[in-house]
Amino acid sequence: MSYDLWYWDGIPGRGEFVRLALEAAGIPYRDRARENDGKNHDGDSASLVEDLQQPRAHPPFAPPYLVADGMTIGQAANILLYLGEKHGLAPADTEGRLWINQVQLTLADLVTEVHDVYHPIAAGLYYEDQKDEASRRAADFRANRLPKFLGYFEKLVHADSGWLTADGWTYADLSLYYVLDGLLYAFPRRMLRIAHAYPRLMALHQRVERLPSLQDYFNSPRRLPWGNGIFRHYDELDPLED
């Protein structure tokens, strides 16, 4: 069985949370918006726009969404909850699955705060239209919100296994890696100054980067580079000194 994953082409974005799980577990899938026969326009896939307009019993609000077993499953955390149970990417017991989903949802909260650094006034405005407000938002994010989230996640990493559970990696470990990687791209100076306070997180980041099952993906064109997506780097939002 092969799944259909739908997400905008050209940026890793929230679709990358799902891709990492599918790739690490060796689950067959089609990245449908990237199979659009050259119909891209500024990174927005025409095939995705067309598919979003198809009538469905349970339509997604926005990508990513997964077409699986006759269902259309939207929201990255919801997709991963489904994949985690079906493919053993989360604990087998209900409490464990809910815990890993909770971690994933908390990561989603952090991603929203990162997004709002660049769009503190309105998501529909360009960053250039709200730079002063973004500068104020970024200063608070660097000083207060970022350490608060990282400190929380640092406590969750199991001392012996190095993962979020004692039994090995889950989809939330992969998502935690992705968020850390994005933060290292978007705020490299700030992350360099505070990384020493989160040794388990930094070790988990490297551990995922070395996973044998992800090496083909990491070294292939399927892995999209950072750019104008969730995580963006602007020098003025990551100064040499706060």
UniProtKB/TrEMBL annotation:
One Pfam family named in its UniProt record: GST_C_3
GST C-terminal domain segment(s): 93-237
> Residue limits of the GST N-terminal domain?
1-91
Q: What is this protein called?
A: Glutathione S-transferase
- What lineage does the source organism belong to? Bacteria, Pseudomonadati, Pseudomonadota, Betaproteobacteria, Burkholderiales
